[in-house]
Predict the 3D structure of the following.
Amino acid sequence: MEVNGKHPEHRRRIEAVANERDLAIVGGSDAHFPFEVGRVSTRLDMDRLTPRAAAEAIQEGRVEPVFRDGPFTRGIRSVYTRIHRSKGHLANASSSDRE
C-alpha cells in the first residue's frame, strides 16, 4: 500500500489496513504543490540497486515509508496556501488542501 505526500494525514488508516492484510507500506508522491515534493519517500533494504531487487524488497516487506513534515515544511505549506488562496487558485480545493 502507498501513503503519499499529498495526504500523509491518512497514514494511520493506511497502516491499519496494511497491517490487517499483511501488506508492506511504501511512500510515494502525489505532489500538487512544491512543498509536497519529498514529503514521503520509501527506504528499501536491498543489496543490489536494480528494479528486480526493489520489487523483491517490497514483496518481502523490507521497506518503510519515510516522512518529512516538520515545522519548516508546515510553515512553508501555510504561507504557500495563503498566497494561492489570495490569488483564487484554491477556491475549489478540498479542506485538507487548505490546511
Residues 2-98 form one domain.
